[in-house]
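Lab notebook, design round three. We kept the backbone fixed and only want residue identities now. Task for the bench partner: fill in a sequence for the structure below.
Input structure tokens:
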């Protein structure tokens, strides 16, 4: 549960050259924007960690914090929650928004209509997501991306000021609602009736996580039956998955307007902005994550669960921007480092 898996950037030229910019689709390899490819590969690495290590390798994956597991496994869960959970699908969402802006600019340069092109691509994205759910695994993000991308089409021409309001609303309103619920869950426990009611809720959550942890895999020797199981599982998780749309749309909008502004055409001139984003993103993000992880350790199940949801709406996006800024600044210092080349190769796929 609570997991969903989820070009035009700077190619470092010779000294004195500007950063090359081209459309990611159909561009020759030497014209690709390597910084975007690097960030995309980095995001994919985080998605591999969250899926392969946390979901499949460790019993009772986060946030099944009620399940008794070995200390080493619990430590691994805590580290993944702290550094990875809700950080890398948000980074991928940011990059999706940048790519959206690139496609708009490309259509304008080529004199073609943008709407038919992006509609075809979003339809294909939805189809890949549907096939992923039915044929492989129910933990899919592509359908959510396709749905949210359709909303982004409607918002593609809003001003930068309006975009900032949307972003603050999409991230801030859910975060405030969850925070209010979290505070209520703590205060209500101070009364006898509230404590009794919430203890029942805690027990129900513990029981549900125990069932999820003990449930057999939906892999089956009867392949048609396994397809039906995956579809059923996805529909059960649909409300949870749809709750990610505000975060995804906010990151889409940030990426869209970074792409429109030309921020990544020459990111070196925005070093001061990147430094501020790194400082604020990492300091605030890490502080919030210390509180989130602590909540899973010391608070009852319902309150801890609300803290985990706050990671999705607030801590994750903030820390994502700090991490993305840190990686970008490191890349600008030396884009030829081996790990950056490896990330870029993966990102080009």
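Proposed sequence:
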């Amino acid at each position: 549960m609570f997991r969903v898996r989820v070009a035009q950037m700077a190619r470092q030229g010779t000294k004195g050259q500007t950063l090359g910019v081209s459309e990611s689709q159909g561009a020759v390899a030497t014209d690709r924007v390597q910084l975007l490819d690097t960030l995309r590969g980095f995001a994919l690495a985080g998605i591999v960690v969250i899926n392969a290590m946390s979901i499949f390798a460790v019993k009772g994956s986060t946030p099944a914090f009620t399940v008794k597991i070995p200390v080493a496994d619990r430590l691994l869960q805590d580290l993944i929650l702290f550094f990875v959970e809700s950080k890398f699908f948000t980074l991928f969402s940011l990059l999706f928004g940048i790519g959206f802006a690139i496609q708009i600019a490309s259509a304008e340069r080529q004199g073609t209509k943008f709407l038919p092109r992006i509609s075809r691509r979003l339809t294909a994205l939805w189809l890949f997501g549907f096939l992923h759910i039915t044929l492989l695994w129910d933990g899919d993000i592509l359908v959510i991306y396709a749905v949210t991308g359709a909303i982004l089409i409607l918002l593609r021409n809003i001003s930068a000021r309006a975009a900032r309001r949307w972003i603050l609303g999409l991230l801030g309103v859910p975060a405030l609602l969850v925070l209010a619920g979290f505070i209520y869950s703590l205060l209500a426990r101070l009364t006898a009736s509230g404590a009794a009611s919430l203890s029942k809720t805690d027990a129900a959550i513990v029981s549900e996580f125990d069932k999820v942890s003990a449930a057999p895999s939906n892999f089956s020797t009867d392949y048609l039956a396994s397809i039906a199981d995956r579809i059923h599982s996805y529909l059960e998780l649909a409300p949870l998955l749809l709750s990610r749309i505000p975060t995804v749309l906010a990151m889409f909008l940030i990426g869209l307007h970074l792409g429109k502004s030309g921020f990544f055409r020459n990111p070196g001139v925005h070093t001061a902005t990147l430094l501020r984003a790194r400082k604020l993103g990492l300091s605030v993000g890490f502080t919030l994550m210390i509180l989130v992880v602590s909540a899973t350790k010391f608070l009852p199940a319902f309150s801890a669960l609300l803290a985990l949801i706050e990671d999705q709406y607030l801590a994750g996006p903030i820390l994502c921007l700090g991490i993305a800024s840190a990686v970008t600044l490191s890349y600008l210092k030396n884009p030829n480092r081996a790990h950056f080349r490896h990330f870029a190769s993966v990102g080009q796929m």
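Keep this in mind before ordering anything: The two ends are 28 Å apart (CA to CA).
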